[in-house]
Amino acid sequence: xxxxxxxxxxEAGYLPAFAACGDAELVAVADPDPVRREIxxxxxxxxxxxxxxxxxxxxxxxxxxxxxxxxEQGARAAAEAGIPALLEKxxxxxxxxxxxxxxxxxxxWLGFNRRFSLGSELRGAMPRGGRLELExxxxxxxxxxxxxxxxALIDLAPHLVDLALFAGLxxxxxxxxxxxxxxxxxxxxxxxxxxxxxxxxxxxxxxxxATVRGPDGxxxxxxxxxxxxRGARERLGPGPHPLVASLEAQLHEFARAAxxxxxxxxxxxxxxxxxxxxxxxAAASLARGGAPVSSDQTxxxx
Length: 302
What we know:
Elements: E1 2-4, H1 8-20, E2 28-30, H2 34-41, E3 46-47, H3 50-57, E4 62-64, H4 71-81, E5 85-88, H5 95-102, E6 109-111, E7 130-139, H6 140-143, H7 152-155, H8 157-167, E8 174-178, E9 184-190, E10 194-201, E11 203-213, E12 219-226, H9 228-236, H10 242-260, E13 267-268, H11 269-287, E14 293-294
Parallel strand pairs: 1-2, 1-4, 2-3, 4-5, 5-6, 7-10
Antiparallel strand pairs: 6-13, 7-11, 8-9, 8-14, 9-10, 11-12
């Protein structure tokens, strides 16, 4: 597999995930930044562009972990080369880009890796009339991202929107959002199946929580990662960091998808369109002062 994008996720997440994964081997990397190439590549071949990587290294599959604005280019290059691709989230900066990516043949898979951590407890768990409570937060300065400084709505919310759909919420009829500043956003999704509340922050201690409640408020399923005490145990305890573990599981699933086309947990390009449709509706709600917006009225290209 070739890796495009040598940012912090590649360095701190995917490199140890590849080392632990017996189903996928990293054979080359590409990034326009020579310093980042050297940090991530080690002894591997390193290229300044994904086109060079594809031609010179002949990978069997491509992992695109570059900034979201570059995802479509990576997905298109992989499709033209006839090799499967895995794109990091979000699939594109906007709904129109996500829709174009989904039309590629072969269409890429998407890296909604929370399906392999929090999502292991949530898939299809939401009962009709139930409620989802989802939270994801981290300190951006601690993560030390190299280039990307996206607002919480693009940086974090796509993960949780995808989890809500993965849990069985269904296409939300109404989406509302509020935000005090770019690093914080709260969403409310309402569908025929129930509702979901989503909270994201880029300037708080790391914590991830997902709770599924039944119609009477009883807890049906719950998953937690991070927090002050739990986070210390996760960092110091045996086994890989939760991020690395989720990326390793995702690589296993992508390798399976690349070989057989079957990947029941891995997100599809169509799932990316669904998530970005909700994000577009949330952005429209923010522009309207938090007023609910119908997601099915969010047009591609709007």
